[in-house]
Amino acid sequence: MDDHRGGSFVAVRRVSHGFDRGNNYHSTSADVVAGSAAWIGRGLSCVCAQRRDSDARSSVDLTPLQEDSLRRLQSRINVPYDSTILEHQEALKALWKMSFPEEELHDLISEQWKEMGWQGKDPSTDFRGGGFISLENLVFFARRFPKSFQDLLRKQEGNRAIWEYPFAVAGVNITFMLIQMLDLEAVKPKTLAGAAFMKFLSENDSAFDLLYCITFKLMDHLWLDMRATYMDFNTVMKSTRRQLERELLLDDMSRLEDLPSYGLLSR
Predict the structure, then answer these.
(1) Listed residue (73, 75, 70, 71) closest to 199, CA to CA
(2) Closest listed residue to residue 169, CA positions, set 210, 205, 124, 208
(3) pLDDT reading at 19 higher than 70
(4) Half-sphere exposure (Cβ direction) of 240: Cα atoms closer than 13 Å
């Protein structure tokens, strides 16, 4: 993955009026303000991307099936988003269509993208934090769990903060955090969570995408529990990571669907 990822976060102000889609919130350019801390990127201040000493362990021996599954996932991780590739363009269009089926997208570079929580009118500038797989994760989430996806996109659940996290950029952060937490760029994972994840990955090629959905919903659940606002995003991500690590290491977890946080999702 690219070592030159970086950027600043944006805060999205939640309002309760002025939109045609009922009372659901969507940001506009007037509702997005720059923050002072780093939002995405290796070597920046996002605590979700930092490895703790307690995570480290000797790398585990993988079965041939696990090695093959990990290589396939790494091949996805290593693909940067490229706006000149038709497949990438189509995936971005599909994401918009599933997000806002009632609104036609005017262009792949448009102010409309801010409604989804991108930092500007060109989402490709935000994908440097997670590559093409971060877009694939969002598309998978929208297709597999449309209700939960819409609930998070439109901030429909709970007593929300005045200043909310931007949905799309948060999604890229979650992809990045999971790659770091599971140590997926190593030949063999050296984290407890990464070693535990290998058994799920070898049995389900979509395991990373499914774990992404679980993580996004868990993050929002903790966000509401902590009554967080946008300046608390890193704190919420740290708590999300800790909870996810605990769940991955529980006994008798034969499928990702057995994780307690999977129950937060709805189709």
Answers:
(1) 70
(2) 124
(3) no
(4) 32
Strand partners, 33: 11
Compute how many other C-beta atoms are within 10 angstroms of the C-beta atom of residue 49. 23
Tokens 């590739």: give the residue.
Answer: 85
Strand 32-38 and strand 163-164: the pairing is unpaired
What single-letter amino acid sits at 52?
R
Q: pLDDT band for position 59 (50/70/90)? A: low
Which pTM was predicted? 0.82
Pick the residue with more confidence: 32 or 87?
87
State percent of the chain over pLDDT 90. 72
Q: Which DSSP string corresponds to 79-109?
A: ----TTSHHHHHHHHHHHHHH-TTS----SS
Locate the domains of the chain by residue range: 64-264
3-class secondary structure, 222: helix
Q: Which two tokens stand for residue 31?
A: 């509702």
